[in-house]
Amino acid sequence: MEALGIIGLVYLLAGIIQLVILIVLIVKFLQLAADVKQLKNLYTERSRELSSSIDKLSSAIKEQSNSKDNDKPHVAKDENIVAELKKEPNKPYNEAPAKEVPTVDENSNDFKQHLRKWKILKNKGYTDQAVREYMEYTKRDMSYAVDFINSI
Known about the structure:
Elements: H1 2-71, H2 78-87, H3 109-123, H4 127-138, H5 142-151
Helix pairs in contact: 3-4, 4-5
Keywords: Membrane, Transmembrane, Transmembrane helix
């Protein structure tokens, strides 16, 4: 009989612990729900402010473009982009200046290792990659690199 009393007491304690845990979880859930409501209210408020700011900016831009259109004759907007592109001449990738040809020590171990790699690339059909890597290593122009890779 005493064994049944101890088992009942254990079950009673387990039930009380479960009840306490359940109450804690319910309180935490209610706090979480309140936090979500607060975040939702902040989000709607900020989104209204943002949309009104965007509306103000778009109207200011429209007014500014209208005033510029009235002051000046209509000019294509692409002309500015073309003018900016003409300012910088296009340079080939990793091409050395025409006057200055960098020197490469063809007897160094590093060059010999690269030469072996370029030969393998060329033999496997990756000539373009070999040319690019040669240009990157020697800082020479494309025509010189193509001639060199084709000669090996």
